[in-house]
Amino acid sequence: MPPSGIIYQSASFLKRMFYGLMRGVGAGIISFVVLSVIFAYYPLVKEEISYKFSKKAVATQSGFGSLLDRVYADSASRTQEEAKKLGVDSYFSIVIPKIDAHSRIIANVDSGNKEEYLDALSHGVAHARGTYFPGQGKGIFLYAHSTDSPLNFARYNAVFYLLGKLEEGDKIIVFFADKKYEYKVFDKVTTSATDTSWLTDKGMGEVLILQTCYPPGTTWQRLLVLAKPVTQRN
After folding, report:
1. Is a pLDDT exceeding 50 seen at residue 59?
2. What integer best gives the mean pLDDT of the chain?
3. Domain parsing of the chain, residue ranges
4. Fewest CB atoms within 10 Å of the CB: 67, 90, 99, 206?
5. Is residue 181 predicted with pLDDT exceeding 90?
6. How far is C-alpha 37 from the geometric centre of its chain's CA atoms?
7. Cα–Cα distance between 101 and 227 in angstroms, integer?
8. CATH of 88-233, one of 1.10.260.40, 3.40.720.10, 3.30.110.40, 2.40.260.10
9. Residue range 15-24, pLDDT digits in tens
10. Is the Cβ–Cβ distance between 209 and 218 less than 8 Å?
11. How far apart are CA 74 and CA 91, in angstroms?
12. How far apart are CA 123 and CA 155, in angstroms?
C-alpha cells in the first residue's frame, strides 16, 4: 500500500512517481482480473439467466396448457353426453336422424376380407381401411352392405336399410374421438356391386360416403350417399 497523508506529501518527487506508477499498475491488474472473470463466466451466467426465464415461460405455458386441457375435457364430456342421448358412443359412431339410424362404427375394416367385414357388419357399420377419418379433409367410406340373401338383411343391413330415403340437405352426424362432425347430403349414386373406385380418394375434399346394398336385402347393386361437412364442434 503506498504512503499517504503527511508522509506521502513529504516524499521526494521520484518516490511519488514510483508510488503513483505502482498504484496505476495495481489498478490495472485488478481491472484485468475483474474483466477476465467476467469474460470467463459470462457464458455460464447467460445460460443460467436464460434457463430461469425459460422455466418461467414453460410454467406460464403449462398453466395455459392446463386451462386448454380443462376446456377440451369439458367439451369432450358434453360430446359424450350428447352421443349417449342419441344412443351411441362418442368414440366412433353414426347417427342419421331422418331414418332413425344409429350405430357404432368399426374402424379400419379390410373390405377385401369377407370374414373380417362380415364380422364387423354384425356389430355395426364398417369403416373401410385405407380411407380417412372425420376432420382429415379427405374421403371417409362407411358401409353396411354385405348380405348374401334377403333373409340376412335384418342381420347385416338394417342400419342403412332406409339409406335410399335420404335426399339433398339431409343431416348425418358422425362422432369421432369425442368430437362431433355434421354432414349434409349432396348426392346419391347407384353403381355396380363390383365398383370399388369410391374406396380411393377422388380429390373432392372431405366427403362422407355411405354405402349399402341396393335394392335392400339384395347384393345386386350398391347405393352411395355422399355428404359434405357442415360444422365441426370440438
Report:
1. no
2. 79
3. 5-84, 88-233
4. 67
5. yes
6. 50
7. 16
8. 2.40.260.10
9. 666 666 777 6
10. no
11. 16
12. 9
CA torsion through residues 47, 50, 52, 54, sign? negative
User: pTM (2 decimals)?
Assistant: 0.67
Average pLDDT over residues 132-153: 79
**Which cell numbers in the block locate residue 94?**
353414426
Kindly tell me if the per-residue pLDDT of 48 is higher than 90.
no
Q: Of 148, 147, 141, which Cα lies nearest the Cα of 126?
A: 141
Task: Output the CA torsion 180→181→182→186 (10° steps).
Answer: -160
Instruction: Give which of 6, 174, 9 is closest to 93, Cα–Cα.
Output: 174
User: Would you call 180 exposed, middle or buried from its count of C-beta atoms within 10 A (0-12, 13-18, 19+)?
Assistant: buried
pLDDT higher than 60, residue 68:
no
Q: Which of 210, 103, 91 is nearest to 158 (CA)?
A: 103
Task: Look at strands 101-109 and 221-233 and give their pairing.
Answer: unpaired
